[in-house]
Amino acid sequence: MSPAGDDFKGGATTGLSHVARPGVDTSHGPILYLEDITVSFDGFRALNALTLTVQTGELRCIIGPNGAGKTTMMDVITGKTRPDSGTVFFGQTIDLTRLTEPQIAHAGIGRKFQKPTVFENHTVVENLELAMKADKRVRASLRARLSPAELTCIGEVLDLIGLGAEGGRVAGTLSHGQKQWLEIGMLLMQEPRLLLLDEPAAGMTDHETARTAELFKALAGEHTLIVVEHDMDFIASIAATVTVLHEGAVLAEGPLDAVKANERVIEVYLGR
Ligand SMILES: Nc1ncnc2c1ncn2[C@@H]1O[C@H](COP(=O)(O)OP(=O)(O)OP(=O)(O)O)[C@@H](O)[C@H]1O
Ligand SMILES: [Mg+2]
């Protein structure tokens, strides 16, 4: 086995810049603004006037105790849950509260749930092919020829997710970590600007976790990543800005060391 991360491509570009979608105006810096978001379930406020800004290209970690509202926040961003009040903007101009879930995905927001959901009986390359946008619109089957641009794109994503040598393997035979990377690759085929990842390192070996940190660092910059995680070593290794949610609002935000030293964070989340 090679040392963690050494065969992920580093640097700011993933080679997918030629497919970056126009239309998200990030000229002022932020790619996502949540302002004063409240979500109530039977009178209980899962999100309570939540306000949060994420800069374009940032790698942001969201932590907080069970029930803090982390998943609900992702549900609001992706249109699965409508807020009772507040605004959600993708860039300067796209009001996400007015879009449907498919429209939000098409606008450039990809989401990965905790459990990997790849097509187990297809090869790694076929999985990426199936995830490609063009596939859904025009290609009826996997037998149709891929264009040179599509082949290049698949090759770049394979290298990026560290599966360059596994393209012909049946996905069902991959390790848990490799399936997670493949699913991230499938999201990348849809050319997202913003990626939401819920506990991506859960169930991974230490080696896989370290490589996932390298992957996220390689993706940040061209992409913006919001990662919900509990694994403090993982968070430390990606050196992200950390936002602590508690009772549906931001309790603390900043570098991990500052957040870990915060008395309120210790009290409600880290413990003494
Ligand atoms: N559809 C729903 N109906 C009723 N209550 C809900 C619903 N979804 C979430 N909640 C409640 O809202 C609160 C926030 O839940 P959420 O899943 O966002 O927390 P979380 O921070 O993701 O927690 P965890 O770390 O356990 O994943 C919880 O008290 C939860 O029980
Ligand atoms: Mg959750």
Can you walk me through this structure?
With 272 residues, this protein is an alpha/beta fold. The chain has a domain at 17-115 and 193-270: Rossmann fold, CATH 3.40.50. It is 33% helix and 24% strand. The chain is built from ten helices and ten strands. The strands form two sheets. Strands 6-7-8-3-9-10 form a six-stranded mixed beta sheet, sandwiched between helices. Strands 2-1-4-5 form a four-stranded antiparallel beta sheet, covered by helices on one side. It is globular. Bound molecules: adenosine-5'-triphosphate and magnesium ion. The site of adenosine-5'-triphosphate (ATP) has 10 residues, from helix 1.
Topology record:
Elements: E1 30-41, E2 44-55, E3 59-63, H1 70-77, E4 85-90, E5 94-95, H2 101-107, E6 109-112, H3 124-131, H4 133-137, H5 148-160, H6 176-189, E7 194-198, H7 206-219, E8 224-228, H8 232-238, E9 241-246, E10 249-255, H9 256-261, H10 263-270
Parallel strand pairs: 3-8, 3-9, 6-7, 7-8
Antiparallel strand pairs: 1-2, 1-4, 4-5, 9-10
Helix pairs in contact: 3-6, 5-6, 7-8
The structure holds adenosine-5'-triphosphate and magnesium ion.
Labels describing this entry:
272 residues; alpha/beta; Rossmann fold; four-stranded antiparallel β-sheet; 10 strands; 24% strand; binds adenosine-5'-triphosphate; binds magnesium ion
